Every structure is written in structure tokens, then in C-alpha cells.
Amino acid sequence: MNIMNNNNYNGPNDLYPVSMEMPKLAHAYVPFQYLSCLYTPEVGLKRGTIFPELDRPYGVDPEYTVDA
């Protein structure tokens, strides 16, 4: 799998800061996202995204597979 690394990327836990301690009720909260690891344009076109963290192919990830 072709992934372009801009630095020593070891997974999303290395990049994202700790979440807010006391978020307010009914306020939108979006965690910080950093562009550190991207697919090449060719792979991104084939996979449907250039962001590996958002790549969830149907039927491959058991978390998103529905048992019949």
C-alpha cells in the first residue's frame, strides 16, 4: 500500500491532542486533524479518499460488516 509519510507517523494517537476535559453540553466539538500521512493521488482515486484514517472499504472491516 502506498502511503506518503511526511514524518515518523506511528498512528493517529501520535498526532491528536487529548480531548477536551469538560466540553459544554450541546456545543459542537471537532478534534484537531493533521495532514501527516496521505495516499498518493493514484491510490486515493482508487480508494475514494486520500486520508488513510478515513479509508473503510465495505465488507473488509469487521466493525462495519453486518452479520446476516
From TrEMBL:
Pfam families: CotJA. Keywords: Capsid protein, Virion. This is Spore coat protein CotJA. InterPro entries: Spore_coat_CotJA. It comes from the Bacteria.
